[in-house]
Amino acid sequence: MTTADRPSILPLVLGPFLVLFAGAVSPAPAEALQSYAEEIQALLESHRIQEASDHIVASDELTIRDQIELTEIPAPPFGEEVRAAEFLARMEALGVDDAWIDEEGNAIALRRGRSGNEVVAISAHLDTVFPEGTDVTVRMRGDTLFAPGISDDGRGLAAVLAVLRALNAADLETEADVLFIGTVGEEGIGDLRGVKHLFSDRGPRIDAFISVDGSNPRGITHQALGSHRYRVTFRGPGGHSWGAFGLGNPAHALGRAIVHLDDLADRFTQRGPRTSYNVGRLGGGTSINSIPFESWMEVDLRSEDQKALLGIDSLFHRAMERAEWEGNQRRRSGAPLEMELEMIGDRPSGEIPVSDPFVQRAIAVTEALGLQPTLGRSSTDSNVPISLGIPAITIGGGGTSGRAHSLDEWFLNREGHLGVQRAFLILLAQAGLAGNGG
After folding, report:
1. Which CATH superfamily is domain 23-225+351-431 in?
2. Burial 133-167, CB ≥16 within 10 A → b, else e
3. How confident is the model at residue 22 (pLDDT cuts 50, 70, 90)?
4. What is the pTM of this model?
């Protein structure tokens, strides 16, 4: 869905329920159409493709080394510069036609194709969720690697480098130009700032987009989970809880805001596309016997459907405005309460149809490697191109992992080469192998 297609507001049906649209889509097995299965099989018959695939297996230790060494470079939110520079240097060392850091901080390398009529991008995100000062040293216990970000997205970055290494090792030429990218701002408060820049009028041309995120070697995310995130702050004069009693109380208004949101959004989320709401953080106040000068909360609204996301957003605003009004009605003296709504996150929804050639090629490649493909929805860098109708998917880089976004995040290199081979083949199928490929 393009920006022009999105309605400015979702009509709300008042009454016992707020009725929307048909239900959610859960991750499910998929099967490629015969024509795409045959296309991928023909690709695999090329001896040079087989040479590149064998190189991925043979260079597996290099891939793991990249994964460890990049993970050990801290990349907290809005602090990805050092890791970006190192990722760029590694792409340059492998051999590309051009390389640069863009205005937003994304690391980009270009490998020119024969025709250059299209541009296919393969990316992984540079940032982690962990704050500055987090110990990101990789520890090995048995055959398992432990470190914050070792899979999300240390694995993705290593897989992107491995794909570039394989293309160069087999001297494969694509028809399309290929961009290899490390994006900034994929996690949390980064709000997809890197990929938003890529798909703005200041970014490069991209006709198809692959995001390698985490490890899952079977999943294909072609549906974008959208979200709106807000920081809500109520402010007042503040004062002593006894001596200034009667002033507008920001904490009381905040409590009303949560109750009103819960009442309205609970009904809304009982029907229609899967939609959620959450008050994740709260703060404010100076002491138990003080009326706060301010109280705040951070709210996460999500939906698999862009219209439903706009609908729950409208209810959220209604709940906040009502709480502000009621808080001031309760006020007996002093200046009125003021409310500030700051949008701190905006990730669009959308989906690329299963019938799209790009999705079909991803399914066919997964099957050709003896894996059962599953289709799903998530919030990743692919949200932005998907929302613009640009073919995009998110896949894993191979292996097994767990405890993402925790200090105990782990990665096990169990047939990890399959994830890299899958990314390589999906990229090549979309970019096209120049000539007959041998």
Report:
1. Zn peptidases (3.40.630.10)
2. eeebebeeeeebbbbbbbbbbbbbbbbbbbbbbbb
3. very low
4. 0.88
